[in-house]
């Protein structure tokens, strides 16, 4: 299905029209003004901390369910999204209790056994010993979860999800495990991955025991890389599985112990190869990634905790070939047809040259919130990146604190720079962006005090990113609420998700590490390539949704080139699809050994669909009436004609 063909488009349009019949009566999220609205979506009764998003029921609708921890952090709860009532409902049968002496610190949802149903890995920490217990629960997509295996414990830092062997299966990467903690000669990084099934003994009568889905082994690296050791992840860390050299294949980004340096290991056919070590700004909080300047490379956004600065460290790669014929010959730029080509010379802007957003200059007297209060095993809240206005450039959401302890969610929009005003990067060659405070239409956010954390999510599945806000109310109770984004409902988007092809039709967890790279046209008509990543971080309540929302601005054109990369080591790790329709949901099933990737396209209902349907139905009605009336007139005329003919014959007979 390389090109979504005409028939597909027509049937999609028909489905869309039929779908909107039910949509005509739904007005839960119809608002008039361009602003944020706090919405009642069943979370009023929730007490606890949000942990992760996942699609438990797996209806392929890209609506998400929410995993939370109870206030005492002893139980994981699942809040399931009900389509009919448009609200979350606590699914009590899916509650998971953790062992006594341990507190839930994180969950990593995903399809661990590849049966098309969502499973969940629960990470809980002992505050006394720092042991991180990990339990894998397999889901049944309706009632809840059953414990499958006790995974070997980690020590202190939380392991995060990646693809170890290019199979599309979820594996975990972490530091020295609990069982090796006193062995000073133990390798610094370890992997929890699916062990290959042991061959059944020839004379066995009983079935072989089921394979371990997350068996512990030291991290294997190509023999050629014996010189540099992979560093042990810091605790807490913001390590990620994300494409950083531009080949659309996810690489490893590890925040090393001490929180001053990071290492990048690029993915290749032979495994993970050492690329570079870099420095983080001092006092760095959790690193977030997004293509901030829309040049096709994923950049770093680093808050300085408890201070007022957010640093943007640009990923400097070969630029696209635009009006640079000479450089094209020298191979200094990236051609449009080869947007998923690696640039081995890539590097990040050093901290001294980073672009800095000064929070205090936008909101006087406010600093970044340094920690989430009253949460054990915590990490500082990250800067959340999402394209709120769908213009193709990520915007920021974060939590600030005033001197008197009041906290607020703040939104910063990325806007274009006046030409030449902000050249960024170490050689001042990249186009930067300007960042402006969003102060209008956010009164719903202003009213919320005691905010602890925020994340982006698409509330009703229509493609605009709303907010999930975690706060403590006046009585100190842990609460969660949602904000509906009614600012920019007229811009276009693509919602993308890459899934393991083994899981068959349904897609619940996605796979770790896919990259989406695409050619966009800005509102001013300029072409550029941008990149997005699918849930690149999974430790420390990273709160990514399984799908990726990609803003494509107000140009209602087909997407010329939409490239998808998966971490596979075999054969083809990327494919490009042409002619995607704006406002559609795209589900890709990569088959890395062949070019047989499957792309499914779903159209989203737009605001005007009910009117189009009404117009279509009324025109059909008018046509039907016209046909009926004309038919009747015709019959009458026929009868008259016949009678006249009859009279004529009788007259002649006389
Ligand atoms: Ca499963
Ligand atoms: Ca890569
Ligand atoms: Ca970039
Ligand atoms: Ca934006």
UniProtKB/TrEMBL annotation:
<comment type="similarity">
    <text>Belongs to the TIP family.</text>
</comment>
<dbReference type="GO" id="GO:0005886">
    <property type="term" value="C:plasma membrane"/>
</dbReference>
<dbReference type="Pfam" id="PF23122">
    <property type="entry name" value="C2_ITFG1"/>
</dbReference>
<keyword id="KW-0812">Transmembrane</keyword>
<keyword id="KW-0325">Glycoprotein</keyword>
<dbReference type="InterPro" id="IPR028994">
    <property type="entry name" value="Integrin_alpha_N"/>
</dbReference>
<keyword id="KW-0732">Signal</keyword>
<dbReference type="Pfam" id="PF13517">
    <property type="entry name" value="FG-GAP_3"/>
</dbReference>
<dbReference type="InterPro" id="IPR057089">
    <property type="entry name" value="C2_TIP"/>
</dbReference>
<keyword id="KW-0472">Membrane</keyword>
<keyword id="KW-1133">Transmembrane helix</keyword>
<dbReference type="InterPro" id="IPR024881">
    <property type="entry name" value="Tip"/>
</dbReference>
<feature type="transmembrane region" description="Helical">
    <location>
        <begin position="611"/>
        <end position="630"/>
    </location>
</feature>
<feature type="signal peptide">
    <location>
        <begin position="1"/>
        <end position="23"/>
    </location>
</feature>
<feature type="domain" description="T-cell immunomodulatory protein TIP C2">
    <location>
        <begin position="511"/>
        <end position="602"/>
    </location>
</feature>
<dbReference type="InterPro" id="IPR013517">
    <property type="entry name" value="FG-GAP"/>
</dbReference>
<protein>
    <recommendedName>
        <fullName>T-cell immunomodulatory protein TIP C2 domain-containing protein</fullName>
    </recommendedName>
</protein>
């Amino acid at each position: 299905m390389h090109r979504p063909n005409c028939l597909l488009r027509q049937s999609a349009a028909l489905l869309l029209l039929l779908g909107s019949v039910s949509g005509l009566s739904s007005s839960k999220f119809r608002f008039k003004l361009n602003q944020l609205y706090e919405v009642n979506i069943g979370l009023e009764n929730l007490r606890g901390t949000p942990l992760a998003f996942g699609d438990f029921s797996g209806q392929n609708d890209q609506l998400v369910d929410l995993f939370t921890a109870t206030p005492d952090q002893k139980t994981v709860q699942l809040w399931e999204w009900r389509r009919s009532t448009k609200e979350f409902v606590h699914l009590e049968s899916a509650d998971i209790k953790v062992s006594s002496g341990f507190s839930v610190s994180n969950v990593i949802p995903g399809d661990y056994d590849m049966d098309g149903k969502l499973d969940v890995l629960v990470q809980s920490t002992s505050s006394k010993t720092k042991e991180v217990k990990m339990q894998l629960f397999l889901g049944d997509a309706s009632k809840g979860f059953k414990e499958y295996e006790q995974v070997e414990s980690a020590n202190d830092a939380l392991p995060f999800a990646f693809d170890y062997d290019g199979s599309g299966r979820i594996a975990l990467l972490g530091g020295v495990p609990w069982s090796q903690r006193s062995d000073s000669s133990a390798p610094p990084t370890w992997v929890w991955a699916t062990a290959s099934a042991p061959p059944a003994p020839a004379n066995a009568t009983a079935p072989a025991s089921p394979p371990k889905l997350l068996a512990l082994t030291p991290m294997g690296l190509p023999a050629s890389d014996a010189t540099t050791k992979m560093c042990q992840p810091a605790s807490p860390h913001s390590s990620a599985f994300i494409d950083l050299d531009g080949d659309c294949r996810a690489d490893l980004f590890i925040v090393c112990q001490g929180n001053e340096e990071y290492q990048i290991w690029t993915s290749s056919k032979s495994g993970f190869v050492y690329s570079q070590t870099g420095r983080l700004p001092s006092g760095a909080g959790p690193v977030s990634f997004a293509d901030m300047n829309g040049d096709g490379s994923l950049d770093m956004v680093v808050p300085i905790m408890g201070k007022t600065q957010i640093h943007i460290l640009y990923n400097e790669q070969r630029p696209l070939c635009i009006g640079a014929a000479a450089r094209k010959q020298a191979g200094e730029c990236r051609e449009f047809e080869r947007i998923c080509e690696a640039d081995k010379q890539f590097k990040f802007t050093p901290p001294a040259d980073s672009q800095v957003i000064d929070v205090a200059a936008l909101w006087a007297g406010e600093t970044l919130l340094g920690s989430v209060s009253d949460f054990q095993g915590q990490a500082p809240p990250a800067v959340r990146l999402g394209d709120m206005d769908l213009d193709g450039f990520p915007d920021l959401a974060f939590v600030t604190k005033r001197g008197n302890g009041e906290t607020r969610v703040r939104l910063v929009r990325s806007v274009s720079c006046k030409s030449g005003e902000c050249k960024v990067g170490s050689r001042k060659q990249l186009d930067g962006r300007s960042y402006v405070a969003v102060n209008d239409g956010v009164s719903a956010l202003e009213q919320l005090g005691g905010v602890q954390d925020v994340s982006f999510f698409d509330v009703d599945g229509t493609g605009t990113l709303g907010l999930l806000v975690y706060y403590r109310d006046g009585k100190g109770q842990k609460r969660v609420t949602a904000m509906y984004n009614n600012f920019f409902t007229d811009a276009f988007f693509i919602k993308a998700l890459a899934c393991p092809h083994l899981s068959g039709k349904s897609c619940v967890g996605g796979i770790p590490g896919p990259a989406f790279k695409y050619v966009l046209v800005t509102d001013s008509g300029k072409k550029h390539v941008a990149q997005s990543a699918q849930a690149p971080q999974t430790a420390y309540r990273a709160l990514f949704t399984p799908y990726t929302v990609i803003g494509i601005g107000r140009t209602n054109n087909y997407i010329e080139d939409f490239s998808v990369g998966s971490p596979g080591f075999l054969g083809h790790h990327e494919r490009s699809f042409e002619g995607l329709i704006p406002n559609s949901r795209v589900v890709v099933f990569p088959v890395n050994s062949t070019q047989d990737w499957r792309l499914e396209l779903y159209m989203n209902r737009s605001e005007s669909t009910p009117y189009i349907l009404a117009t279509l139905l009324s025109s059909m009605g008018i046509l039907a009436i016209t046909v009926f009336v004309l038919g009747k007139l015709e019959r009458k005329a026929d009868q008259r004609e016949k009678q006249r003919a009859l009279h004529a014959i009788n007259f002649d007979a006389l």
